[in-house]
Amino acid sequence: MDRNTSIFYKMTRENENSTTQLLYNILRAKYLRHIVLKYFGIAPEAINEITQDDIKPQQSEEDIGIPDIIIENYNSYYIIENKIRVDTRLRESQKSDYIEKIKEKNKKYNGYIFIIPKDYKKESIENIQKDKGYKVTIIEWQDFINYLKEMELDSPIIKESIEYLSEVILGCPVNNTLTIEEINIFYNPQNIYYSLSILKKYHNLINNNEEIFIKSLGNDFSPSDWAYDFYDVDLYHLNLKGKFINYNKKQCIFYGFDLNLITPYDDKKNKYVFSVSFDMKYLDMNKLKKDKEIGKYGIPIENKDWIYIKTDITKIINDSKGEEYFKEVTEIINNVFLKNLKPK
Predict the structure, then answer these.
(1) 265: buried, middle or exposed (CB in 10 Å: 19+, 13-18, 0-12)?
(2) Residue 344 half-sphere exposure, CB side, CA atoms within 13 Å?
């Protein structure tokens, strides 16, 4: 489904609020509500008592803020928190106050449910469980949506809700490639926030296609965290700049958009905004400087303890899988990074 043709496209934004509203709409239908709440692990006795009026999306709750969804009646109290991006941080209130509120309500049936992307750091949620001694239910969006898709659903609105959730959360990219005009903006540091907003496309492309790329590097490599240079609650989904790669569980390779290399005074550095960089402790620098294999990528830039090698970001144009881009990043890593070299 082309997202632009979705009936929800012009009335929603790809954020937690819009997906929460769509989830709430799904819960309004009694038949589907019973299916979903059962999937969430809620007791059948509680499910039978829960009505549409008991479910409140984004309602202010005294002392704790605004949970995504609250289910409350005379016997039940549940809080459902929705996360659609792997980089979303838990607020302090979500770590402690929500559970205290659940305990304070002292209902017969109660629970704290998280719906998260597959690659979300579960440890941050599981730590709540350890710290507060209260079981937290974790549901992965991917499994949940696939489960819903298997249902025989008659309502076209519900079907389209699920399709839209699938595109937004599972990251089926539509028009997710960078244009040459957008790429040029990256090399003009005068409006970094606009550059970062465009970077969301890059973020989606990496998240959707990284698994195959990492596997091609070998068993000792694994994906690591996205890197940030600044954090703003209103722009949290725009401040991603690139991705680390682990080698033997150590962060020593980085690829993506590097803010360290933006400067209006040094045109050479601007050409390296998109690069693959390596922790120099893991490189044989003498060999690297003599190696002709990296000559075609341009002269590496050294910056503190890291070395940067240019990548051609234009390879992403009109390629939602980024195959040529990942191929180049893989080639650079294979030529430059020396496996089994002990860090200095």
Answers:
(1) exposed
(2) 9
Retrieve residue 126's tokens: 């599981």
Report the alpha-carbon distance of residue 251 to residue 194 in Å, rounded: 28
Do residues 201 and 177 lie in contact, with contact meaning Cβ atoms separated by under 8 Å? yes
Rounded CA gap, 177 and 170, in Å?
17
Reduced to 3 states, what is the DSSP secondary structure of residue 227? strand
Determine the Cα–Cα distance for residues 274 and 334; give it in Å rounded to an integer: 18
Q: Report helix, strand or coil for 198.
A: helix
Query: Residue 286 carries which side chain, given as an amino acid letter?
Result: N
CA 301 from chain centre, in angstroms, equals 30
Report the relative pairing of strands 109-116 and 136-140 from DSSP bridges: parallel
Residue 336: left if φ>0, alpha if ψ -120 to 50, beta else—which one? Answer: alpha
> Which is nearest to 177 in space by CA: 152, 198, 147, 207?
198
Sorted by where each begins, the domain ranges of the chain are: 3-169, 180-336
pLDDT tens figures, 22-75: 888 888 888 889 999 999 999 999 999 999 999 998 888 877 888 999 999 999
Higher per-residue pLDDT: 54 or 84: 54
Nearest to 109 by CA among 24, 49, 27, 69: 49
The tally of CA atoms less than 13 A away on the side-chain side of residue 180 is: 0
> What letter would DSSP give residue 106?
T
Cα 318 to chain centroid, rounded: 22
Burial environment of residue 125 by CB neighbours within 10 A (0 to 12, 13 to 18, 19 or more): buried
Bridge partners of residue 76, in order along the sequence: 109
Looking at 3.30.420, 3.40.1350, 1.10.287, 3.40.50, the CATH number of the domain 3-169 comes to 3.40.1350
* Widest distance between CA atoms in the chain: 75
Helix (H, G, I), strand (E, B) or coil at 279: strand
Supply the pTM of this predicted model: 0.50
